[in-house]
Model the fold of this input.
Amino acid sequence: MAGLKETYHKVYDELQGVGIKQFSCAHSPSKRYLFMITYIIESMNSCLVAVQKLPITAMAECIRDLLQKWFYDLRTNASEMSTYLITFAYEHIKDRTDIAQRCEIHLIHFNKFKVDDKWKKTTVDLDESSCSCRE
Done:
């Protein structure tokens, strides 16, 4: 951030205005979207360690082969899927749906609800995006 402040102070000021928790995984209070973000270059570097010392044309051919295999595998997996969601997301939603179906929901006031299940009773406020269970 110090380097950014020295080089691009307008960008630095803009990011500070947004708040560091909005763009920094290290400062985020929780994982976003249930996974931590990694960059594709990290994956590429780990796959290309063995070919980094090859001549550039041979290395480019290896990169092309690797990407072609990745896209083929992704396309094949996608064509075999029975849902529009990836398996992880589908299972997560299915688990949450099963839990939700066991709950009784009672309206308290417009966007405020009491949710009862076998183990706990909570209050959910949609306006405040809060829940008494703090989840």
